[in-house]
Design brief:
Layout (H helix, E strand, L loop, with lengths): L2 E2 L1 H8 L3 H9 L6 E2 L6 E4 H10 L9 H4 L8 E4 L2 E4 L2 E2 H7 L2 H9 L25 H4 L3
Antiparallel strand pairs: 1-3, 2-3, 4-5, 5-6
Length: 138
Amino acid sequence: MLLLSARETADRLGIKRDTLYAYVSRGLLQSVEVADSRERHYDADEVERFRAGRGVTRARPIAETLSPVIGSAICLIENHRLYYRGEDALRLAENATLEEVATLLWQDEAAPHPPTVSPRVPPSPRQRGEGRGEGNWP
């Protein structure tokens, strides 16, 4: 299998390397790890198939094709919802503190999940407009 560098692949496709990386993150192209290097390489045959198939249609891709195809133990996108370690992100935003979300994200996968997040702390007197006369703050 002939492997191409990112620069060679971008040149063959007539795109910038940023666009190449976007194609990889969307699952449109696959990259291959290079031993003892941070570089990624690309299968020349796959690049040619991609180049040949590109431009055949101008139809916009369906939304599923635009979702990144990256495996993750931390987040999940499913039915137009985002989950962090199994917890609904919207519910976390409404009810969890920053520290609780950070704990959830940084925890070891083998460790049990932290208890359900506590409700948010009520607003401070300043946030409620109380104190210092008319509620005006410098």
